[in-house]
Amino acid sequence: MPAPARDPADERLHTDWAWIARYAQANAQLPAPDEAVPRVVFMGDSITEGWVDKLPGFFAGGDRIGRGISGQTTPQMLVRFRHDVIALRPAAVHILAGTNDIAGNTGPMSAADTQAMIRSMVELARANGIAVILGAIPPADQYPWRPGLDTGASIRDLNVWLEAYARQSGITYADYWNAMRQDGGLGMRDGLSYDHVHPTEAGYAAMAAVAEPAIAEALARAAAGAGA
Asked: Are 40 and 63 spatial neighbours (Cβ–Cβ below 8 Å)?
């Protein structure tokens, strides 16, 4: 009797936990970076991956490289950071991470655990002369796949830390949380998400409005040698 087929995602957790292979071919096919057109890599989870799909014009110039993987936590991103960020020799990296840590997608994680992973990614970037943009986690008052979690308060508190860490470290902060949050609430405004977590096209347009000046600021830091 044949063994039951394993779910591909579950199988991958045993064979390529951080899914380093996900972008290996795309990375190999990228041209060398052009100093006249500074490259920005977007490291993240499904919110970053969906950005490429739902607002492709934002990435159309070839200088913005999406490296989001749905469901990923910060430990997985840290493992693949050298492959999917440093090796691409960008001028800046946009890190948007942490919502799946709160969900416990790869096991229980404390806020301190998430902070340590993010610090490590930032330190790796800065050690390689890459300017950093830290993105606030977009608001979410519930996770459909993890009912019962107090997601809104956890996201709010992590964003408070992210903003303070960015300020103390002299790196750029992109405040998606306040740009997308309900007035007086912890969820996303109507029309900006289709499931309380993942942005719609309108949601990504709101994010792009925050990201553009953040990218400009980070690239100015990179050009000035402040790197980050």
From this structure: yes
Q: Other C-beta atoms within 10 Å of 175: how many?
A: 17
Q: What is the pLDDT of residues 20-39, one digit of tens each?
A: 999 999 999 999 998 889 99
Helices within 128-150 (DSSP H only):
none
Contacts of residue 65, Cβ cutoff 8 Å, sequence gap at least 6 = 30, 39, 40, 41, 42, 59, 88, 90
Instruction: Number of helices (H) and strands (E) in the chain: give both, helices first.
Output: 9, 5
DSSP characters for 115-170? HHHHHHHHHHHHHTT-EEEEEPPPP-S--TTSTT--HHHHHHHHHHHHHHHHHHHT
Torsion, Cα of 122, 181, 73, 130 (10° steps): -20
β-sheet bridge partners, residue 181: 188
Is the confidence at residue 145, as pLDDT, over 90?
Answer: no
Could you tell me the maximum CA-CA distance found in the chain, to the nearest angstrom? 65
Token couple for 100: 């799946």
Structure tokens at 187: 């969820």
CATH node for 38-224: 3.40.50.1110
Strands 92-96 and 40-44, by their bridges, are parallel
CA–CA separation, 191 and 138 (whole Å):
14
Strand-pair partners of 96: 44
